[in-house]
Amino acid sequence: MAQLNFGGVVEEVITREEFPLEKAREVLKNETIAVLGYGVQGPGQACNLRDNGFNVIVGQRQGKTYEKAVADGWVPGETLFSLEEAAEKGTIVCMLLSDAAQMQLWPSIKKHLTPGKTLYFSHGFAITWNDRTGVVPSADIDVIMVAPKGSGTSLRTMFLEGRGLNSSYAVYQDASGHATEKVLAFGVGIGSGYMFKTDFKREATSDLTGERGSLMGAIQGLFLAQYETLREHGHTPSEAFNETIEEFTQSLLPMVGKNGMDWMYANCSTTAQRGALDWMTPFHDAIKPVMEKLYQSVASGNEAQISIDANSKPDYRAGLEQELKALHESEMWRAGETVRKLRPENN
Question: What is the average pLDDT score of the chain?
Fold first, then answer.
């Protein structure tokens, strides 16, 4: 294992130097990897594994997503099957269905998880809150997880660019005595950059906090608050959107990703430096209690239960579409659509 120093905190991580692709292929050479679900994570993981030389099949229900799998080169009856048939054929069964679908389909999948097989996840939700989800694996199989820190699309794009998306990994159940080497091999196989150890509960808790916090919920709230404030004080949609989002995503965020926010602070105007230093503490102090409240809601299982209850409603999909439509049609994101069309690469 490599040791990385995170500001004085030393953490052990796995890189492809310690666990090369050749070793991963050797570990999984006798395995049939059945990827169940071809929605968010399925395409990236399945295609990366296939391109890296592993024996992969896909399980997917008929519909648009099934047709996407066909378009990606998965052959019906050879490498593309129904969910149950893929689960039966696979020795490593990958639950890459949505959390709601995992709960719904668990009884039909579980019967194919015979002794000696491996059950794989990319999110700890179903296992962490299995008293609510009902996903309780038998004791005679390995249960492992690799959780890429990004979308399946990013995983695939970075793989094709010769890069890797960092992932966490965990072993929930080691019936074979070889679960750790299997999970590391799998992480390398899907194209991870480096891998850091976690457990199912920590992954699920941090993931739900991130989605509701800085990755989506909080950032949308912050964007909207600033956009509305500018608009209410007479700024045009173009000016409000550019100052709130376009400059952040197109100019600053790539540099933050490459060099860090500390670098940004050191490499902007003195006016920007002074204002940013003065205002970061009031924002932190206002947001920190909300983040703590969010974390406690996630850790207690309340957020999981909200999700389970919502997904269980017969009209949930229709209601969700209405909420997403309202977000899509809001002035801020309609302004964004117009601004994006005016980017140089689109003209």
Answer: 95
Distance CA 103, CA 36 (A): 13
**CA nearest neighbour of 299 among 209, 217, 215, 168:** 209
- Residue 36: its H or E element: strand 33-36
Is 90 exceeded by the pLDDT of residue 193? no
pLDDT-derived band at 313, boundaries 50, 70, 90: confident
pTM for this prediction: 0.89
CA distance to 153, 228, 229, 230, 275, per residue, from 234 (Å): 39, 10, 9, 7, 22
Note whether 147 and 207 are within 8 A (CB): yes
Looking at the structure, give the CATH architecture of the domain made up of residues 210-346: Orthogonal Bundle (1.10)
Top-tier CATH class for 2-198: alpha beta
**Does residue 153 contact residue 39 with C-beta atoms inside 8 Å?**
no
Q: Any idea where the domains of the chain sit in the sequence?
A: 2-198, 210-346
Distances (CA, A) of 225 to 124, 271, 293: 32, 23, 20
At residue 12, the 3 state secondary structure works out as strand
What secondary structure does DSSP assign to 117-149, as a single string? -EEEES-SHHHHTHHHH-----TTSEEEEEEES
Confidence category of residue 65, pLDDT binned at 50, 70, 90: very high
Residue 112 annotated as catalytic:
no
DSSP 228-279: HHHHHTT--HHHHHIIIIIHIIIIIHHHHHHH-HHHHHHTS-HHHHHHHHHH
Tokens representing residue 57 in the block: 């099949």
In this predicted model, what pLDDT tens digit does every residue of 121-136 receive, in sequence order? 999 999 999 999 999 9
Instruction: Kindly indicate the confidence band of residue 263, based on its pLDDT and cuts at 50, 70 and 90.
Output: very high
Q: Please tell me which residue in 112, 123, 178, 235 is annotated as part of the active site.
A: 123
Among 66, 35, 37, CA closest to 50: 35
**Residue 245 structure tokens:** 């989002």
DSSP 3-state assignment of 94?
A: strand
Helix (H, G, I), strand (E, B) or coil at 191: coil
